[in-house]
Amino acid sequence: MLSRLLGMFSKHLAMDLGTANTLMYTRAAGIVLNEPSVVAVDIVKNKVLAVGREAKEYMGRTPQRIKAIRPMHNGVIADFEVTKDMIAFFIRKVTKGLRIVRPSIVICVPTGITQVEKRAVVEAAHEAGAREVFLIEEPMAAAIGANLPFHEPLGNLVVDIGGGTTEVAVISLSAIAYAESIRVAGDAMNDAIQRYLKDVFQLVVGENMAERVKILIGSAMPLPQALVAEVAGKDAVYGSPKVAHVSDSHIREALQETTNAILGTIFKALEKTPPELSADIARNGMLLTGGGALLKGLDQLIASKTNLKVIVDSEPLTTVLRGTGRTLEDQKFFSQVYIN
Fold it and tell me: Three-state SS for 125?
């Protein structure tokens, strides 16, 4: 009786606890938070100084006593204590005025997550102030968010390219029939750009700059019109400030290994898919979601290599969160998609 009463007054939350960004959703207001998964910590005083967008600005600019930490790595918790502080900060931010009762929360996780990693996510959320914690796999959440007929006996192929992982899953009858998860995604693209600029231009750039270059001129296929960006960093030989003019073809070359790895994962999943579900996929194509879906020409590259129709969700950055949020509307109906 008491738990039902608490449930009536608690705030139900959905969270996409991503490697690059954390997003939160409430039934009443929809998406209420979208911040980088970064925490700035004073390591001398062991004190959190900033979280989210403000903390991301610290990256590469901090004195020795301050560290800007990304506590999520490859879609899972890399630093338990800092993740707990980050979740607690975000929960407080979106539950202002409703702190009397602890919230119930649904968190999406990668399909390749281990039992130990699952427990870490649940534990971190409980310690951060959540009353109940449910987990849902990212491709399933994406299918729900994109309004795919996930509960029907049909093969739905979802490719979700996040910050830390690329998830490829075939979904049928409210369950994942087959999945492949690779820890190569948006972060790996940023790393590849950093390595390429250092090798080819002798230019050392930070993670934030690499990400900006990817968004500005990154592509998987040749563009109708060439793009050039002025990239500022440090000379790899002399250590002095340096600026280079970099084209989209350079960045395409830098990203080739990463895009090939993503393609390889899609092919592996298609290879292992049962024939009946393959026939459905051949008719309906695949859904492409996540921040990586915004890489120019990636949908065309995948379509040309697989001979399948590729549908990019209208808002790929929030597909997973919208699906996670939808499960809050009828938790009894969606209970079968939770994995804990």
Answer: helix
- Residue 197, CA distances (Å) to 119, 242, 245 in order: 39, 12, 11
Distance CA 86, CA 83 (A): 5
Q: How far apart are CA 60 and CA 225, in angstroms?
A: 33
d(CA 95, CA 51): 16
At 171, the amino acid letter reads I
pLDDT per residue as tens digits for the range 214-257:
999 999 999 999 999 999 999 999 999 999 999 999 999 999 99
pTM of the model as a whole: 0.89
Token look-up 């606890």 returns 17
Domains and CATH numbers, the chain: 2-37+75-140+320-337 (3.30.420.40), 152-184+256-316 (3.30.420.40), 186-254 (3.90.640.10)
- Give the separation between CA 104 and CA 132, rounded to whole angstroms: 5
| C-alpha triplet 199, 200, 206: angle, nearest 5° | 60
